[in-house]
Design brief:
Blueprint lengths: L1 H18 L9 H21 L8 H19 L9 H18 L13 H17 L5 H17 L8 H14 L14 H10 L2 H12 L4 H14 L14
């Protein structure tokens, strides 16, 4: 059992180091990036060693696969679209802590970064069920509502965007008042209709994880496209996509 304790000790130390990065000291930047690339494989190995991995539900397994690509993305350190790495590092630390709790639930207090993370998962499961209960014609309106809220927030930082739950409630109320959503002639890439179609192509677990991430601040378009990118990256980690991607 010593090796298990050592692995979680290594993870705890790594997350503590990453808490202070990115910082003003760029001397050890490469070391920090390399560390970010190692933390998810570390906790993944622990999950498998403890025979927890295959008991986890599909959404949590999708979340770990997603975190693998996040760690790799940080470790490469190159992304012209990203000017601030801190949110991504914070996300990575939180996900690793969440999986560490799966390994040793009795010691959950050791992983404060994971506080509330399990509740997000539960809410996402319910939100996806609610979303699927809507008539297909109304589903894109959920993402249109969320996207509009993000645009509003960009122009007004004091405005807090609604959660996916809020958007679902708003759209359901509209559906009760109208026979069908207003027609739209706009179908540009990233449009809410495209988001709904792409979400439908994702395996169930990935759909739940995408919905969870929308509720934590990701735009709908970013959530579903990043999910697709994470799935396509899985062979780099030895995960086959055939006959079907992991659920």
């Amino acid at each position: 059992m010593t090796h298990r304790t050592d692995r979680l000790d290594q993870l705890r130390s790594a997350l503590d180091v990453l808490e202070g990065w990115p910082g003003s000291d760029h001397q050890h930047r490469k070391d920090m990036q390399a560390l970010a690339g190692r933390v998810v494989p570390l906790v993944w190995a622990e999950l498998r060693e403890r025979e927890v991995w295959h008991r986890m539900d599909a959404a949590d397994r999708a979340a770990l696969y997603w975190a693998l690509t996040t760690g790799q993305r940080i470790s490469t350190g190159w992304d012209p679209a990203l000017s601030d790495w801190r949110p991504l590092v914070t996300e990575l630390r939180r996900e690793c802590a969440h999986f560490a709790v799966h390994c040793a639930a009795k010691h959950a207090q050791r992983w404060p970064e994971a506080d509330g993370r399990a509740d997000e998962h539960t809410e996402a499961v319910q939100a996806l069920l609610w979303y699927r209960s809507l008539h297909p014609a109304w589903r894109p309106e959920v993402f249109r509502t969320l996207t509009h809220a993000h645009l509003t927030t960009e122009h007004d930082p004091d405005h807090h965007p609604p959660t996916t739950w809020d958007a679902l409630h708003h759209v359901q109320q509209r559906a009760l008042d109208e026979d069908k959503p207003r027609a739209t002639n706009h179908r540009a890439t990233g449009d809410a209709n495209d988001v709904a179609e792409l979400l439908d192509t994702l395996p169930d677990g990935w759909q739940t994880e995408a919905i969870r991430r929308m509720s934590t601040g990701h735009t709908p378009g970013h959530a579903v496209t990043t999910a697709t990118e994470a799935i396509n990256a899985l062979p780099r980690f030895g995960v086959p996509l055939r006959p079907l991607p992991p659920p």
